[in-house]
Amino acid sequence: MHCELILHLILFDVKSKRSYQVWHLQQGCRAEHDDRTNRRIERNIRNARFRYKASIEELYQDVDRNINRSLLSRLASCTYLEKAESILITGSTGIGKSYIASALGNQACVQGYKVFYSNTRRLFTKLKLSKADGSYLKELSRLEKTDLLILDDFGLQELDAFARNALMEIIEDRHGKKSIIIVSQLPVTLWYEIIGEETIADAIMDRIVHNAYRFDLQGESLRKRRKVSENNTIV
User: How many domains does the chain fold into?
Assistant: First the structure.
């Protein structure tokens, strides 16, 4: 009986040690997985080159800009990326359009998607230079591979022939396959004039608008509000 008890205790000790080793291994694997995930998120955010460090959570607190919170919650799940749907954000200058685009892009990075954020004019300038050095198709391919492309400050100036054709190629490459967010001070109805050349404008707008979610922001400029707040601060 004494021997059986000793044997039982030995077996129990062995099982306990094995259980601890398994648990310790699991914890190590989980920590390694979390570390890889965090590094991938940080890399995605860094490569996206967002204009602002923004988050979806901060947008929920804003009550003054006609933000549809129900829509915002749906977009935070990033299912629109799986469906290759687009987002159009319009409103006057300083109202926070770029911040919302950055927040949505950041959320996509957290969910594991690859994002690229760019000022529209700068992107077309870069593409024009790539046309000259022979890397144009490579640049288009790089844009096509991103899960989400964000074009900020669209429509600040009318598109020339090169920008118009480049936009057509970008939109055509992404249509039905990848999502795009376009940010503009101008209402969508005026984009036809910005794009120019009716046939191309119709083709581009048809592909952009028909499956797009929209934010039409309203209210006072956040920059003006911030400036007033600073002036009223007592030091």
Answer: 2
Mean pLDDT of the chain: 84
Per the domain annotation, does 235 fall within a domain? Answer: no
Using CA atoms, how far residue 22 sits from 2, 31, 33, in Å, is 30, 14, 16
Distance in angstroms (rounded) separating the CA atoms of residues 183 and 181: 7
How many residues would you count in the chain? 235
Per-residue model confidence as pLDDT tens digits over 131-155: 999 999 999 999 999 999 999 999 9
Strand ranges (E), 138-178: 148-154
Decide: pTM greater than 0.70.
Answer: yes
In this structure, the answer to whether residues 19 and 134 fall within a common structural domain is no
d(CA 174, CA 149): 9
162 within 8 A of 124, measured Cβ to Cβ: yes
- DSSP letter at 234? -
The reply to whether 23 and 108 lie within a common domain is no
For 16, the domain range is 1-48
Whether residue 234 lies inside any domain: the answer is no
Task: Give the pLDDT score at 97.
Answer: 92
Mean pLDDT along residues 97-106: 95
Q: Is residue 165 part of a domain?
A: yes
pLDDT band at 62 (very low <50, low <70, confident <90, very high): low
Cβ proximity of 49 and 118 under 8 Å? yes
